[in-house]
# Entry
Amino acid sequence: MILNYIKIAFRTLRKNKGYSFLNIFGLAIGITCASLIFLWVEDELSFDSNFPKQDQVYFVSTHQEYEGEWRTFGSTPGPLAEAMKAEIPGVVRASKTRGLDLLFSVGDNVVNRFGRYVDSDFLDIFSLTFIEGNKAEAFKNPESIVITQATAEQLYGEHEKVVGKILKVNSTDNYLISGVIENLPNNVSYPFAWLAPFERYGRDKEFTREYGSFFADTFAELSPEADFEAVDAQVRNLLQEQTGDADSKAFLHSIKDWHLRADFENGEQVGGRIDSVKLFTVIALIILLIACINFMNLSTARSEKRANEVGVRKAMGSGRVRLMIQFISEALILAFIATLVSVILLLVLLPQFNLLIEKDLVLGLSKPSHILFLLGIAIICGVFAGLYPAFYLSSFKPVEVLKGLKVTQGSATFIRKGLVIGQFTISIVFIVSTILVYQQIQHVKNRDLGYSKDQLISMKVTGSMIEKFSVIKQDLKNTGAISNVGLSNSNILNGGNNGSNLTWTGGVDTEDILISFRLVNSEFFETTGMELKEGHGFSENRAKDSASVLITESFAKLMGKGSAIGKKVTLDDTYTVVGVVKDFLYGDMYGTSDPVLFLNYHDEASFMYLKTNSEIPTNDMLAMVEAVMKTHNPAFPFEYGFLDETFNAKFKSEQLVEKLSQLFALLAILISCLGLFGLAAYTAEQRSKEIGVRKVLGASVSGIVKLLSKDFLKLVGISIVIAIPIAWYTMENWLQNYAYRIEINGWIFVIAGVVAIIIAMVTVSFQAIRAAIANPIKSLRTE
Amino acid sequence: MKNTLLSINEATRTVNSGSNKVTLLDTINFNVEEGEFISLMGPSGSGKSTLLNCIGMLDNFTDGGYTFLGEPVHSMKEKNRSKLYKEYIGFVFQAYHLIDELTVYENIETPLLYKNIKSSERKAMVADMLDRFNIVGKKDLFPIQLSGGQQQLVGIARALIGQPKLILADEPTGNLNSKQSEEIMELFAQLNKEGVIIIQATHSESNAAYGSRIINLLDGKIV
# Structure
């Protein structure tokens, strides 16, 4: 019996090649698209899951209150980890850590790697496996270092025993390699290429032993029996007791939430990546739904052709259930073929998709879960898409269809129209969303930053760049490629380096306001193009500015009415405001940035900025800069970034949404069009006699095209009406995530509507024209 | 006395067309006995096909009694009715109604599938049938590759494969030329001799003459 179904299914497929193609291809696109999304979702969900202690490992963060609002910070004081372990019974292990880039050199082989200075507990918290060396001995010597296998191979090549070797670090220190650990997978929230004893890092840094300085990343492991609520509260009490600061509330952030639920708003966990994961899962399901709708539409549209078969089979003694089984089997076979096609599509498209989303996903066809997933999708799609046609087709009465009576298509036509409206509604929502996401990103990118991000190179300060700064600066300018050189303790684009422990003239509740500190050189403003609104900038001679500060306009506003020049700010010492700089944007590109205080003090600068001369080609310019840096800072590799690129990188997750929504909009439209195309073909076929009669009676081609297209366009029109409120509501919701945002403009809906109508028209008119220009004698003769 | 296969008692069939009630069959009374070959005659619209469909249980009388092999069909559930006609009735259609996607062999085999007959048995039965109708060489062809007469032959083979007691043929030769018609009618006569009861609807006097009894219908009534 089943064999009979399969046979007939394949023959039907072969007989109706066009129809089969539309059906299989539409479904295959849907499955491919859903699979890509689910691969991405799988990757997102698997973050940090390789560490075995999923229920016990936590990261200590703090909520801090400023101006009535709780903000969340990852940094904690150095002594907290040990205190937690000593005083809170539920805490089994704890480690303070400090993440840094270190420069390793082995001969000419020089690499820069990010890693962490940690307490020895860290190794157990994350259950790290040693390939060489052993855990117990690893941190005995404070001058030792544990590296990952990949790092070891990069430094020494493969199959080399490295434990016991001396590794040159930052060209000044020598660390003893005490262990090699297994590589971490890509999907880790806190990655590291090396681990070294914190003792070594903190040796000459008093602040690491004080509660006043929030600088460390603290990890803790709770005992399996520990009461999370209690420990969480105890950590909070502990930190408040030690700092005496009630506006700083520590909390434990579970390893399971590090990647997916890392957004906090006013002290509450509000989601994070999980929102994108959910959004895209829904989108994947919607696309599958559209593809299944196609299937149903095309199948029921073809019902007249199958009606006869249904009648015969019923007369032969087939029950309704058997017919349903037959039609569902056919749908399943189609779905399986579509799945196979989509596997091929996936193989071709996955590398492109990886480029697009900047991940390294693999199809993993050998994984049972992936095979099961594909099978599952095929079965669900087949059954889901085949169920309605099966119900519908099997309901035909043999007497009627065998007599050659027209099948009354009442319910099917109604449902079919509904399904087309559904597809186009979704497509239009996608079009609107795509436009809005694009607009919002452009809107923020074109935002007045308060500085010029173009022609600006940033370099991390390494080696002797500060000591030799004046020479480096002069040599760089002498090349003619660089016009200004600025220094800052902080990346222009990023937040951080802030505090609230200062007072100022006219300041009320100053503790409540978070101020960012920027330690810069005098040329910093010229380099970045920050605009001086009042007063004057810093002097080249730093001694003159030992008691001067520059502030931003928003800071000046805090000082009350009138010019801020001459007003006082008290930090550890008291400074006089000499200039006011236009507000500039950093940190959250969608929000407003905190007020900033500048000091003319560049000894602790971490970033050097070069304003380049636009007339010199980039490659030449880079070569010149490199030459200068090699001369004065030979131990360190020349590493740089362009600020506009770094700026663009800040929009990664939004751009992912942008790219994917474009892709999905396109696919949704494509699948919908395949369906519409098929439907139009069948409508034209069904009405071929009517068209023939009309033509014989003198109807024009254009009149017939209009007649055939009108009904479909009506459906698209209804879709537009339904889609507008849905799209408006969804996107308004999305935009609410951003403080700096666009308003939704009415004309977007007009554009989306027009696009949908044009697409539908092109799709339908092809069939309509073909039907209209056909010779009427042919269509009439067949009766 | 011969056994009665079926008896129809005061049976009526009406349909609603808009607000009008149209009577297709009006108080029909007749019995069919073993060994009969009945020809239903009458002009178009006289109710021949409706009567055949009702006898074949593809359609139901709206009123009156219908007994088949002693079982009251009119008060039966759909499922039992289906079981009954699957077992005892074979259909032959004017337009053949072969399934285009199936070969000759598979078309003939289809009723057996619905009777859940084992594969080996099916093979033997279909082979017999092909042999008997002399169409072994055509078993792998599709209906579209056959002439009308050959298609109807396959249609009859398909109706016979389930070894029915009764064959209902609705204008079986309506689409055929006279020579093909004659062959089909000879075949029916042959089958009737072998014990199959046949009821055919026809316009043709000469075809009707093959029957052992002629029933004339006019406007839904036996005249």
In short: The radius of gyration of chain A is 34 Å. The first strand of chain A starts at residue 57 and ends at 66. The CA atoms of residues 205 and 228 of chain A lie 33 Å apart.
